[in-house]
Amino acid sequence: MTTQIDMFDDGDNGGAMLLVELLRSASLVLVKKLSNNDRDWAQFPNKHQGGVYIPPAQRESGFFPQLVEKARADGEATIRECFFRTEWPQVDMVREKTRLVHYTSKGAETHMTGVPKPAFATLSPASFLVMGRYVTEGVSIYRCLTIDSASADALLLIDTLSLPADFVSGIFEPAAALAAERDAILDFAGRAIEAWLAGEIAAFADGNAALPSTVVLARMARDRYLADHGLTTLDPWAIERPGDAVREISRTIEWELFREFQRRERAIMLVRTILGDTPSDVTAAGIIRSVIDNIGEVDRLMLSASQQRKSRAGYSFEHQIEAMLAAGAVPFEKQVVMDARKRPDFILPSLVRFTTPAPGATNGLILSAKTTLRERWKQVQREMAGGDLFLATVDESIAANAIEDMASLGIVLVVPETLRESRSTEYVRHANVIGFDEFFHEELRGRRMTGWA
């Protein structure tokens, strides 16, 4: 059986980073978040799609060769198609006649077929197809990667191309995206160099390089969201789709703010690493020598961005849920230590009412917040303590079998409304998955809160 190559393996493939190389070398790149149909055909024997749906905007963008009408008998619906070579280095396969076909009788529907099943067979929901176009002597060749949504590679892709949380598909010029990020860092580095020349780099760093605490950054993102939407509080009873609001704040707005602070931090650290803190006569040769001498530190700074974001993302999600509970006057206690050192994110309405319900009152519940799940939901299971457990997440990569395992244990998943409805996730198929709107309006206000007074 053909298996996928680990793109960041340091073994026999010489540490080759296929995604990084593609983004550096391809003039144009198509990225598509895969729907369930885009990958189910490779995972289940009863599926017949046999390829990937390509949206009309990308089909007609000029990224692919021009579609040509296929010869048909009189009266038959028009079929437009083209053929091209695709290379799939992760599975070591080449397809000389990958086909893009538009059956006009089916409306806008267009499929790319003639692609290798092993490239799609083990992907998680909401994974990505990345296609780089290379033109040689007027002929286009396409290098293709599938990026599993549960992998660190997905975060690298999202960060490099600044893909928003609601991204579906698009065509990018990677060089332009990378140049824009580099220019943003260098623009601020220019200000840092001016401070260095004035002998004020340390003070400049103190005032500009520090990342706000997770609480402060979360509040900044929330304030921007409220201003953009003409709201005064994050009241879940007043917001039509409260889960989408939390997702937009924590996964889009706060990330944009974080990246700006991070650019400043990295620009200042690069200047101080290469030039030091004390102004001196600097020559080109001296700067080059300093870069060489500190190349390991420079690499570490430039590569630390994604990991830093990942470590803070969970706090952001938790902070926004806390703000929403408070704005909705939902009684809760946060991070209360239970028996055996269990410390759930939120207990509603309180630890006392959870462990010892009042006579005739509805039960309390535990609400745990996890940006990404993977196997972490098994740890959350230990927090149940015989009560109801609701697990809030914005993770799109959870497979059906994991959702079913959680259902068997009585765990209810709470997800943003858009993810609940999405054709890229597997949430819509399961009764133990609800949206934030259902959680607040039906589970809390409809069933429980009247008994918590």
From TrEMBL:
- Tell me which SUPFAM superfamilies the record gives: Restriction endonuclease-like
Annotated ranges, domain Restriction endonuclease type II EcoRII C-terminal: 290-439
Q: Which residues form a coiled coil?
A: none
Q: State which residue ranges cross the membrane.
A: none
Gene3D superfamilies reported in the protein's UniProt record: 3.40.91.80, DNA-binding pseudobarrel domain (2.40.330.10)
Q: Which InterPro entries match?
A: DNA-bd_pseudobarrel_sf, EcoRII_C_sf, Restrct_endonuc-II-like, Restrct_endonuc_II_EcoRII_C
Stored Pfam families: EcoRII-C
Can you name this protein? Restriction endonuclease type II EcoRII C-terminal domain-containing protein
What species does this protein belong to?
A: Sphingomonas hankookensis
